[in-house]
Amino acid sequence: MSGWTDERGGEGDGRIYVGNLPTDVREKDLEDLFYKYGRIREIELKNRHGLVPFAFVRFEDPRDAEDAIYGRNGYDYGQCRLRVEFPRTYGGRGGWPRGGRTGPPTRRSDFRVLVSGLPPSGSWQDLKDHMREAGDVCYADVQKDGMGMVEYLRKEDMEYALRKLDDTKFRSHEVGLLSFIELPRHSA
């Protein structure tokens, strides 16, 4: 848990982040996934065309949020493995921590996947968004030659990416530009 909170919420207000959702997800689907953990006060679904959808779910009782995280983080939902956690909020007024942010995230791991076949316009953010479908990405970077590298927090997420994301369509921030990514046939 990050421990960063602001006026939008965090660990004490019953709000959770739900990522790696299928593209056709609806608010009703989220309600069905989380109702058993407690009374839901609000569901805020973010489903922008071309990006992996995510949502914020707010429970009336913060303890229910903890139960939902425990019960649904890593849960296989259709073809997606859900990522459920307390939201990460930065600084006192939202936004990034002081000093801004200019490059890829700096947290690293040994659970890495090399990616080929990226379009020249693909950014590390695009790659991270695409590969997040398999789990918690802690680092992503791309090279001009169409190669990229993604690192996962957990070995299981890396292995899931190798199985499920090979030869998948990749969309960069340029609308309509698709490319197929290739992953190695063995785990590192």
TrEMBL record:
CDD domains, per the entry: RRM1_SRSF9
Primary location: nucleus
Keywords from the named record: Isopeptide bond, mRNA processing, mRNA splicing, Nucleus, Phosphoprotein, Repeat, Repressor, RNA-binding, Ubl conjugation
An example molecular function term from Gene Ontology annotations: mRNA binding
GO CC, alphabetical: cytoplasm; nucleus
Protein location: Nucleus
Stretches assigned to the RRM domain: 14-89, 111-175
Biological process annotations from GO: mRNA processing; RNA splicing
Domain of life per record: Eukaryota
Pfam family for this entry, one: RRM_1
UniProt cross-references to SUPFAM superfamilies, sorted A to Z: RNA-binding domain, RBD
Annotated function: Plays a role in constitutive splicing and can modulate the selection of alternative splice sites. Represses the splicing of MAPT/Tau exon 10.
Family recorded in the similarity comment: Belongs to the splicing factor SR family.
Protein name: Serine/arginine-rich splicing factor 9
Species classification: Eukaryota, Metazoa, Chordata, Craniata, Vertebrata
